[in-house]
Amino acid sequence: MAAQGRSPSVRVGTERRNALLADYRPLPGVYDEILGADGQVRPQWEPFLTEWCAFSPEELNQRFGLADRHVHDTGVSYRVHGDIDPRDPTAGERAWPLSHVPLVITGAEWQTIAAGVAQRAQLLSGLLEDIYGPGEMIANGLLPASVVTGSPDYLRPLQGAPGGGTLQLYAVDLGRGPDGRWWVLQDRTQAPSGTGYALENRLALSRAFPDMFRTMNIERLAAFFQAFRAGLVARSKRVEPRICLLTPGPLNESYFEQTYLARYLGFLLVEGGDLVMSEGRVHVRTIAGLKRADVIWRRIDGDFADPLELNASSALGVAGLVQAVRKGSVHVANGLGSGVVEARALMGFLPALGQRLLGEAMILPNVATWWCGQPRERAVVLERFDEMSIAPAFRSAGGGLDSGPVVVADLPAAEKEALRRRIEARGMDYVGQEVVRLSTTPVFQNGRLQPRPMTLRVFAAATPDGWKVMPGGFCRISDERDARAVSMRSGVRSSDVWVTSDAPVDPVSLLPAPDRITIRRITGTLPSRAADNLFWLGRYLERTEATLRLVRALLGRLIDTDPAQGRNETLKRLANLLVAWGAAPGGRGQTPAGQASAALHALDQYGSAISTMREARRTASVIRERLSIDAWRLFGDMQEQLTLEPGREPSEGEAYEIADRALKSLAAFSGLSQENMVRGPGWRFLDIGRRLERGIATCRFARHFAETNAPGDALDALLDLTDSQITYRSRYLLGASLQPVLDLVMLDPYNPRSVAFQIDRLDTEIRDLPSLTEDGMLEAPRRLILKLAAECRTAEASRLDRTSILLFEQLLMGVSSAIADRYFLQSSGPEASRLTGIA
């Protein structure tokens, strides 16, 4: 960065400051975060503006680029509800909309916010214990029974269960009113989202502005996650519990966040199909049998958690989970049924409940709320109808409304009257709320700061030492200038929240104290689903590489101005193999160049490089928590390289370069996996998939290009496809000859591209996989690979023909099927008794 950008003159700094704020006009009647009522910059923002004005416009753009590249390279994304393509879970993902300007809050003000959030979390936690326990609040008339039983989030099977409705993580959406006070807009107790995005916002902005982050003494977030993890550990009955994050799957709106948190916190990411009940406990299906799950942090709605006792149509949960909760054999966070206290219908009763359960007034008041299930409150709402916003009282209730409120004054007359009639007919489904005007915070737009309405989401975690509040959170910023709270449901930006301190802030790490670390060399439990996806990731990547090599070999011969003898026959064989693989279209009128281009870019060809690469990326998205950022970035780069602009047809030379660059990217991933991945079960399944696919592809290459009467150019093509030209030339001075070529690509255990080499590696990897039996008998995958290894070691190149090569290919496919049957399909039925220890 340019030195003068950090040390401007006073005049230059003043000019930049004036330019930033030149068009900043706070909205009438609202609180603005950066400017006071007198039009002066608030004290906590002065250090921020001073630092910003030290950057030249060019340097500021470079800093923004750093933040944006972090978002792009790490794949930070979200999905709008309903924006789903089941064929490609990554297709509907949208880049996380990061605002480059943080929300700055003083430490003193944050103490009040934190105290209010912790108090509210304690109140709702105590209320949950009462709702699923003695029910005193209802019995004493402080809470109408229909507010509880009328909610779809009240789960009757959890009544009286230990831990029913337990609150472990709480989130609250706050808005600042015109008087500067913070108000509660919405409680989040079902399965609060946003902690991972808050952390990503912090990482992106701290990378862009590290000096500002240090000089302004911004509070760190790691201690919150450390405390949250400690709270979950404390809920277990084992010293080293197995904590699972239960996700709805890759089509969920916040799946990226779930994978990110699982990796960051060291939790096991599981879907409902990964879990099974056995002997009264919840277990994870792993490649080594069933392993006990001690704590489940759920990110699915409570009623979807158990199809046996709750929602029978759910495919996301675990049959028998409610029974395990009743027995106390597993802790679920947040507890099943905890969503009942985030209903808007409850908000009007919380002040009185706070006095009864806590003996104190609420530090953070609710936005004024009237539940229309009570005659007097309904009358107030209908009398002041045009002044109200109307919202569903419960989740999935309130016909005619979505999940958010609507401002009555904005509705057409017919809709307004229809809503009034629905409230009169069934008032319990609705609440009336005061229309809150939100404060505004600055965003950077067109080189200047502009005010936009915002809400603040804050998180609290239950820990052994009480409720701990994250010193920050994330700020949702609307692109609209309408400062009413209801407009925030269409908010499109998010920003970090900087809580300042008067003293330097000590760095915090998630690493435990050295004296508490138990040394281990095994990465941990590998669920069968993860093993399955790693296996197929390896296969899809190798399949993509094989297609790219075919395309490059074909295009190289088309471009060659000095063609070898038999070139036309080789071109025909290369093109036919692309057609047979489903990578290119066949039939009359197809040219080799057109087939090569289709094999690179055609999405309608299931075997094309772009199609198999998309499958690889889709598979990788399901196990994103197990892949490094560099690996994920490579998948994105390869997909971009193979994506062609509509209507553009590359030349033969350009298509050759595209295939060549994509092969280099695949080589980079191979280097990452070989040099950076720990040699645990996950790496083994990735490598097994690659070795199987490479062996099968090499057999197919040999069958098509190494026939008895094959021309010399066909044998050269086989050496090209197996990347063995240099080795062959170093051994043999003459041109390509059938038996030496076959020996090199099929039987040579020293050639890393040969079938023999793949079989040797498969033998090693399969040998080191866990066994389910203790009877001393070889399991099917090991038995088949030993048979294949024996066949390969005793084979002679002079006796190899299409039939014998096909036998190798079929045996490799048999090994693949045996691995799938053994490791990817488990049951809690009779086979469970054969498992080696349920740990």
UniProtKB/TrEMBL annotation:
It comes from the Bacteria. This is Circularly permuted type 2 ATP-grasp protein. Residues 526-824 form the DUF403 domain. Pfam families: Alpha-E, CP_ATPgrasp_2. It comes from Bosea massiliensis. InterPro entries: ATP-dep_Glu-Cys_Ligase-2, CP_ATPgrasp_2, DUF403. Signal peptide: none annotated. Residues 102-477 form the Circularly permuted ATP-grasp type domain.
